[in-house]
Design goal:
By secondary structure, the chain is an alpha/beta fold. 35% of the residues lie in helices and 26% in strands.
């Protein structure tokens, strides 16, 4: 998007909407109503940002293959793979908070 300046949001919690400067205000001031989520970690920061963005009324695209997460130990000591966490995040978000897509779908749109 030419003409829109870059914005660096510094945050200490798991959502870009809770950082400095205020992302929601900046997006609205620049008349941006659609956002694409990518980054680390899929099931924490990315998912939380997508949920809040959806709740704030943005059109949210979640580029699931442009996010990354890590294997996690479950409450019984078993392992949940990063791939499984990513798959579950996609299911949690799709059609409620965001539209889950692959990067090439966005680039070819």
């Amino acid at each position: 998007m030419s003409g829109i300046p870059d914005l660096l949001v510094q945050k200490t919690v798991n959502s870009s909407f809770h950082g400095t400067p205020d992302l929601d205000s900046w997006l609205r001031e620049n008349a941006i109503s659609t956002i694409v989520i990518c980054g680390i970690t899929t099931n924490h920061c990315c998912e939380t940002t997508a949920r809040i963005g959806g709740n704030l009324g943005y059109t949210v695209y979640f580029a699931v293959d442009a996010t990354h997460t890590f294997d996690r130990t479950d409450l019984e000591g078993g392992m949940i793979s990063a791939a499984e966490l990513s798959r579950v995040t996609a299911i949690n978000l799709h059609d409620e908070f965001a539209t889950v897509v692959l990067s090439h779908e966005l680039l070819n749109h």
